[in-house]
Amino acid sequence: MSLTTDDVKKIAHLARLGIAEQDIEHYAKDLSGMLDLMTQMGSLDTQGVKPMAHPLDQTQRLRADVVTETDQRQRFQSIAPQTEAGLYLVPKVID
Predict the structure, then answer these.
(1) What is the mean pLDDT of each run of 10 residues along the chain (95 residues)?
(2) What span, in angstroms and rounded, lies between the C-alpha atoms of 6 and 12?
(3) Which of 2, 5, 65, 82 could form a disulfide with 89 if both were Cys (CB 3.0 to 4.6 A apart)?
(4) What whole-number distance in Å separates Cα of residue 17 and Cα of residue 9?
């Protein structure tokens, strides 16, 4: 698929992007290349390919699931303007 300069102008307008007139041809060429690549990738046979969460075969380091902070809700709510039943009361902002 090939994009024209008019296509790029329309896309930029819809996305509310300001692009310089001299760069439009370059964007059209780059975007057309991306669309061609996506078309090629869409035609590949991916039957039997397992989905991956990460391109590298690594394990994620996890931290210990241990509580490290103390509960200070009472302390913080003691300085709040208004609280009720453990909740902060705030003025209504939407009618």
Answers:
(1) 92 95 96 95 92 82 92 95 94 87
(2) 10
(3) 82
(4) 9
DSSP code for 49? P
Residue 3, C-beta contacts closer than 8 angstroms, at least 6 positions apart:
11, 28, 31, 32, 35
CA atoms of 77 and 87, how far apart (whole Å): 8
pLDDT of residue 1: 77
Partners of 83 in the β-ladder:
88
Rg of the chain over CA atoms, in angstroms?
Answer: 27
Distance (Å, whole) CA 41 – CA 45: 9
φ, ψ dihedrals at 17, nearest 5°: -110, 135
Residues 50 and 52: their CA atoms lie apart, in Å, by: 6
C-alpha span between 42 and 56 (Å, rounded): 22
Residues 5, 9: Cα–Cα separation, whole Å:
6
